[in-house]
Give the backbone structure.
Amino acid sequence: MGITNLLGLARDALTAQGFGLDVTGQNIANASTPGYVKRTAMLETRAVGTVTYGGVQTAGIARSVDHFLDARAYEAGSFSASAKSRDGALTQVEGLFNDTAGSGLSDSLEALFGSFSALATNPNDPTARAATLTSADNFAARVRQTSGQLLTQRQDLLTQAQATASQVTDLASRIAKLNAKVSEAEVAGADGSDLKDQRDNLVGELAEKINIHVFTDGGGKLVIAAAGATLVEGNNAAGLTVGTSPSGAMQILVQRSNGTTFDVTAQTTAGTLGGLREARETDLVAVSQKLDQFAYDVATAVNARHAAGVGLDGLGSRALFTVAGPTGAAAGIALNATMVGHPEYVAAAASAAELPSGSTNAIALARLADGNVATGNTRTPIEAYSDLVGDIGQRKMSSAQNVNLRGAIYSQAQSMRESTSGVSMDEELISLSRYQRAYEAASKLFRTADELLANLIREI
Amino acid sequence: MRIADTTRFRNIQDQVTRAQSAHADAARQASSGLRVGAPSDDPVAAAQALRVAHSMARTATFRSTIGSVRGDVELAESTLAGAEDVMQRLHDIALGASSGTLDPKEQAAMATEVAQLKEQLVAFANQKGSMGYLFGGTKTQAAPFSPSGGFTGDDLDRTAEVGHGVVMTVSTSGAKAFTAAGGRDLFSDIDALYTAINADDKANMLASVNRMDEGGRQILAARADAGIKVARLDAADATHEQASVTLATQRHGLVEIDPAQAYSNLAQMQQQLEAAVAVSKNLIDTLASTTAALR
């Protein structure tokens, strides 16, 4: 004990407060770095044997993390991303069926039945006959076009999912590499905070792609299960691929480096991939089926009625549309090739006797517009179509609500996490002053001890 | 709760984004006049609107059908009125011829007039409308009556759908008005009168008086039928006109927005957006002042 100890205390204090300033500086510098976790300089008294010296020493850096809050943020991020990707896909689908904005099928459907009515008032008019064929051709073309766009979108969603899967593979391998580096750093006695920040940030990104579970193994390495299958374990990462099953459905596979694969399609319930899968395999499939059924029902009803009448040549039994199905009806519907270029074959008359100006069959065709010919003979064509549009509207509305809801939950989970891990500038500025004052005081202490020593030496 | 800087900024961003999106929606409603701009805005109303639009389209179709057939029915009615006058004149001739002795000159003049009146009646019976010959049944493409009065048309009805499930006959039967299908074959009767006048056959002239009278009534019946059809078409059209107004109102209520409401919504959203931006500015200033205080 004595003046020399005082110098030692001052030295310790300068080092410790300097360390505090350094850590505060790191926090301030990284205040807006994604994934950065607030650090705290840990100071403790220096114990030397049983003697009390009263010195201070640094005990490293504490990262303010709460794994429970992290997990909640990952999960909320997964759900928010899946809601967004599904909503994006449904926005496109809705765009195809927005009759108020001029897209959709109602115009061409009304035009088809309108042309039957016009034909009924003037069945012997070549213009009215030609107009009927044009309307039928337009209707078929619009249905085919819509079906084609749905198909393109289905393909787009697969491509998107594949891109997302390769991002997942990339993230997994980067996380595995960081696992290795963190472990090396810890073995070397460094705390590896920067590496852990990077790693956690990548895990957060990964959670937005696919639903994950994160554990820490005994050695501080992360083990990540994606959709139930291990994706990252220690220094090893598996890959994720997206393909299609024989039926054309999206298939998501985890591929281990030893060649084994796990089908995690059904377990992929969240993240961008989960949302894309739901949009493609649930929403688009349902919409396509309904469109097929609608096209099939309308075309079949019109065909049956048309075949019952006769053209100007006195012959009947001609279909107006070519249609197969119901599966694939929308993609294949077309104006019957026999009818193309033959307006005189349009069967306005019910029998050869009432030719050329009998319109009994044309009226019957027009009246199909109000007949229960669709959806198992329970809905009129426009009702069946409005059901389809209503269904799409419901899906889009609920997906949009989900985006808001899950976005809010994610935001809240992030806030919770940041309340532990985030940097508060107010706090850091206060710490900065605190360490600055302490550093100044330690300098003063050093000068005092120095002066005392100098005086003593002068006396000697 | 401890609030990190990133939390504050994200909250600010969330609030401004929310206010912006609400404002954009209100602006869309105000500028388009549509409350339901896409099915997801109100799926039930969007589906309902499609059905209402369909009813509107059907109503418009019925009205256009009525518009295009009404002219021909009316023309048939006025043509038959002309034919009735011809029959009246023939009746008078038959009566005049049968009631006294005729000198050969008068006789010849009468016969000529009868022949001319027959031609006139054939012309009436071959009247063309906007969609072909009016009195040929479904055979509208060729004149249904030959110059001698032979009938080549048919007695089939031409029909039109003039309302939901309302299919009515819009043709006027030439067969029933002019041929034996309606009771008497007017042209043979006129031929008989012509022959009787030429032969000075009083008995047949007398018989012709009744026949011409009967023929006139036969045409009158057909004309009355056409008149009733015109009235029916007019009544149906009036109903549809009323319905189209009702349907338009219904559609308006489903998908459109009252302009006054739309503008007041927009003004409200504008205020909210301005408030959100003002609050954001305030928060950012607060953060800045902390930093400044320690400078």
Q: What stands out?
A: Chain B touches chain A through 57 residues (CB under 8 Å). The radius of gyration of chain B is 38 Å. Chain B has a mean pLDDT of 92.
